[in-house]
Amino acid sequence: MDFSKRLTHWYLQNKRDLPWRNTHEPYHIWLSEIMLQQTRIEQGLPYYYKFTEAFPRVFDLADASTDEVLKLWQGLGYYSRARNLHETAKYVANELDGKFPESYKGLIKLKGVGDYTASAIASICYNEPVAVVDGNVYRVLSRIFGIDTPINSTKGIKEFKALAMELLDREDPATFNQALMEFGALHCKPQNPACEVCPFNDKCIALKEHKVKELPVKLKKAKVKKRYFNYLVFDLENNKTVLEQRKGKGIWNGLYQFPLVESERPIGEDELRSLDAFKKELGKEDFSVELFNREPVVHKLSHQHLYTCFWLVNSSGISKEAIKLEEVLDYPVPVLIENFLNEYLPEEYK
DNA sequence: AAGACGGGGGC
DNA sequence: GCCCCAGTCTT
């Protein structure tokens, strides 16, 4: 029996019932695919429900404010996805009359849509014969075919895409693509794959050569950097505080946070007061500073660890623009800030 | 070609 | 502590 037949047979018996599997509408497929980039289905699912309820049509998403979109995206990570999502929604709504491009070629021009997502939408919505290659596909194909080319090398990316295209069921690319990914997610898992009961265990090279645990091969990534954040939590009279929007290319672009003073290493109050960045925040103001957390909060991102201190600053006549404390939770903030607010804010604000 | 970009979960 | 997750964009 050929590859596609075996795979599809497995899929029809084992597939999960997911909300985006009950539609071919490009808006919903696109939404789910953007959300699921580098994201587990269990983590993305609640967000899919939130977005489809808040924005039933692409026009609704286009009409929202960026802050509104980011607030709903809060906690899902990789926030450039949310900004690109919003920009593409506005483009599709306003320039394309609400209709998504109907081919891989057209789709891949959209912001936030790369080879994987364009292939997924084109195959699922329009039955275009283009193969998806996500983390699941790399793992399944590298094992069954015994391919040790690094999956994050230029050569590997081309090689796996070509193999997936070759295997693709041209009659039903939508089912084939989803079946291959679902098989990787549920059966040919990173750890403890179910090789004993695998439909491919008679031909899997990795199983035959005892290389299941070595495949796929991936080039190692840069090591984690440590950073030291000092947030100035202005505890202004009348229950107000100060938030600033992060700008630029770094993490959390577009999200809000307390005024930040970054340091080279952990510091105490005297050192904090001596930093130029701190003086810039609090020039000639009359203020007191009190450390909120005895031990730094360690917030771990995949590429950096943030050692964070929250300093409660009591300042009179501050020149910064303050917002009411009850409005703080309306702003999109990093999980690090949200966690602090949940500890710090009085109950009546939650 | 190599980094940057989040947060959560498995072991 | 390290790896992975329905990847994309920038440098």
UniProtKB/TrEMBL annotation:
Binding note for cofactor: Binds 1 [4Fe-4S] cluster.
Enzymatic reactions: Hydrolyzes free adenine bases from 7,8-dihydro-8-oxoguanine:adenine mismatched double-stranded DNA, leaving an apurinic site
Cross-referenced CDD domains: ENDO3c (cd00056), NUDIX_DNA_Glycosylase_C-MutY (cd03431)
Enzyme class: hydrolase
Keyword Coiled coil: no
Cofactor(s) recorded in Swiss-Prot or TrEMBL: [4Fe-4S] cluster
Matching Gene3D superfamilies: Helix-hairpin-Helix base-excision DNA repair enzymes (C-terminal) (1.10.1670.10), Hypothetical protein, domain 2 (1.10.340.30), Nucleoside Triphosphate Pyrophosphohydrolase (3.90.79.10)
EC annotation from Swiss-Prot or TrEMBL: 3.2.2.31
Domain HhH-GPD: from-to ranges: 35-186
Matching Pfam families: EndIII_4Fe-2S (PF10576), HHH (PF00633), HhH-GPD (PF00730), NUDIX_4 (PF14815)
Function, as annotated: Adenine glycosylase active on G-A mispairs. MutY also corrects error-prone DNA synthesis past GO lesions which are due to the oxidatively damaged form of guanine: 7,8-dihydro-8-oxoguanine (8-oxo-dGTP).
Family, as annotated: Belongs to the Nth/MutY family.
Designated name of the protein: Adenine DNA glycosylase
Biological source species: Gramella jeungdoensis
Gene assigned in the entry: mutY
